[in-house]
Structure formats: C-alpha cells, structure tokens
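Notes on consecutive records. When two proteins share a document, each keeps its own sequence and its own token line. Never mix them. Below: protein one.
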Amino acid sequence: MANNKSAKKRIKINKRNNTQNNSYKSLIKTYKKKFLIAAESYSKDLTENNKTISKEYLTLSISQIDKAVKKKIIHKNTAARKKSNLYKKFSMFQTL
C-alpha cells in the first residue's frame, strides 16, 4: 500500500488511465468484429449496401486505431499491423 500522498495519487491516476485505455482497446475490437461481420455478409451477398456498410466499419476501426496511437495507448507498429490486416481482409472480400 502507498505510504505518501503522491504515491496514493499515482495509484488513482493509473487506475483512471487504465480504465480509459481499456475502453479504447475495447472499441477497436468491437469495430473490428463489426467490420468482419459486415465483410462476411458482403462476401455472401454482393450488394452495394453491404459494401458501403463494410467500408464504413473499416473507416471507423482505422480511425479508432489512429486515435489510440495518438493517445499512446497502442504502439504505432501494432497499429500498422492491425490496419494492414483489416485492409487485407477488405481487399480479399473485394475480389470475390
């Protein structure tokens, strides 16, 4: 347990930051899952509506990843890998 005032304050700040960081990471995962579901439905039913929905979720997930890098929640190379995988999936479903 913390013995002085500044250590107690750091514990509070770390807990707050950890909660915020986890929410950002969770949003990234959520948008990625929604994109994958939309892309899968587009591969089954090649309509323009499904294509726009999957594009929308792709841009949302890329945007969320970039925001997490900007706030130093995830490393820039991790973000690049995640974005690359998303673009690969999108291009894979585009060629169908």
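Protein two starts on the next line and is unrelated to protein one.
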Amino acid sequence: MSTKQDTRKMTKVVVGLSGGVDSSTAAAILHRQGYETIGLTLWLMKGKGQCCSEGMVDAAYICEQLGIPHHVVDIREVFQTQIVDYLVTGYSAGVTPLPCSQCNKTVKFGPMVTYAQEKLGSEKIATGHYARIRHNPETKRYELLRACDRNKDQSYFLYDLSQDLLRATVFPLGEMEKSDTRRLAAEYGLKTADKPESQDLCLVESNGSMRAFLDKYLAAKPGDIVNTEGKVLGQHDGIHHYTIGQRKGLGVAASAPLYVIGLDTVNNRVIVGDRTKATQPECTVERVNWVSIAEPSSPIRAEVQIRYRSAPIPVTIVPLDKSRVRVVFDEPQFSVTPGQAAVWYEGEKVLGGGIIMKE
C-alpha cells in the first residue's frame, strides 16, 4: 500500500513545520488535497538554527499563507537532555554520536504524535522527510522504505521509529523528486520556495561549527597523539575534537597519511595509524531497532550503511541478544565510527539499525 493511499484515510493531519521548503510543501500538498491541516512547530533551542528562531517565523508565515492553525510546542528541556547532553556525554567518552536519529524518535516524532492525538484530536502527523511508509498485510507490520529520490533519501535517520510512530506518520514527499518539491512550492507561492537547504546539524548551524558547540560544554584537556606503538607524535587539546577515520587537522608530520584509529579516554590519548589500521572486518551494534521485519532468530544477509552518505555494502547480521547484533562485512571497511548509526536494508526496505559500539 503506498503512502498516497494511506493519506486518503485521513480527515485531519498535523504537519511538523520547521520553516524549510520541504515541510512547507508537505503542508501545502495535504491542505490542497482537502485534509484539515494543522501546523505544528517544535521549539528546540535558542539561536539561528533553521528549526528554531528563523524557522518558527517562516513556519508561522506559511500557516498564515495557507490559512491553517499554527501551534508551537516548547520542548527545549527535552532537546537539552536528549540531544545536547547526549552529544556532550558521547564526545567526552570518545565516540561520535549521531544526534539526528535520536532526535527524530524522542524529540520530534514522539512528542508530535502525542500532542496531535491528545491536544488536537488527530491520529496522523506528516513531515517533510524523504522516505516512504507502507503496510504489509501479510506481516501486519509497517515498513520503512527509501525515498524515490535517492539523493535526498532520509530513511537512514529514521530507522529508530517504532511501529506505533510509523502507523501514525505519513511522508507526502516520499515519492517525489526534490526538484518537484521546489517546483510545487513555487507554484503554490510559498515564502520558503527559494529558501536555501540546511547544510548541517541545527546545533552546528547555530554555533558555527561542532568544535565551537563542544567547546561551550567541554574544557580543553591537552594530551598526547601517539602511534600504535605508543610513540608520541604530537599533542592535542581534547579528544572530543577528534573522530575515528579523521585525517585532516591532526597537526602531525609523517611520511604517509595518518588517520585517527582510536580515542583512549583513560589515558587521554589520540591514537593514529595508516589507513590499513583504520579498517575493520566487523563491528557490534547496540540499541537495535528492527523496523520492517520482526527480530530474526538467526543470521540474515543484508546491505548496510555505516554513514549517511556511504554506499550500501553487503554484510551478515548476526543477532546477539534483544538489543545487539554483530555486523560482519564481506570486505573490511574504513572508518567504522563508534556512536554513528549502522542501518541495514533489503533493497529499498529498512530492516533495522542501531548504534555502533566502541570496542
């Protein structure tokens, strides 16, 4: 069953509006299709991030253009504990957290569905994400699929959504190309039609860089940069400024390129080595969510992405317990980064995903 067919069952839908062109167009599409459409903006933080100050103003303007109600929900405290504290704790522990999937489940979709159902009497929410949802009548599960526009596909960041959240959500842009979104926004005369894309995390946009954001919370803590034999090659000013696979900005002279291959929080050391030492044949993934299929009892074959823009690679997924799996790559992979998401697919279908553990 396609997303388009699912939307026909709705009479009222609450659309999450960030103030960008995608969510604005999603709201305009549903409104023009005759649904009772309500705009909802989550106030996440102070600053100039697209989802906050400027975004709230643009979202309110879009609702005024469309002639629909606009609600703003203050969840800054939730964002602080679930995202800001999560990032700071992760970086201080020597991992590189991925905030977007965490934010989607606990900060955005969850609170939106609750507010829509309890305060606005709507069983459905919609967002401007590029992904698709369908119901499988045989398995009775809601399946998360890649968007038709593979260049904009955001299913990687949505792997942690539960069945209840998928049941309550529609993605009006899932079967569209980004160029179609821009074209429709212009045809509808939306204020956001020519608004530039958000190029980075909202926290990075509002602070200028991830380094600047982290420096607000984590004090400089100088230490050694060492090779795999323990030889000191240079100095660093805090391991939170480094991530696995990093090559640039090490400040270490060597005859061959060096990469960060380890972050030793106990001894406050950044460990570097050549590219061969930055590859792994497998990794353990925790906090696993099985999306489109039930948890398997035996190993399965799939394709995995270990970064948003990485190409899917063939793997074997070995279940360990209810919340962990072992991901065995057919070929060793470079820069397998603890804290980032590993999301496995069967073709266009998201099977599951979780967070790469620090070994």
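For the record: Residues 278-356 form a domain with the Elongation Factor Tu (Ef-tu); domain 3 fold (CATH 2.40.30.10).
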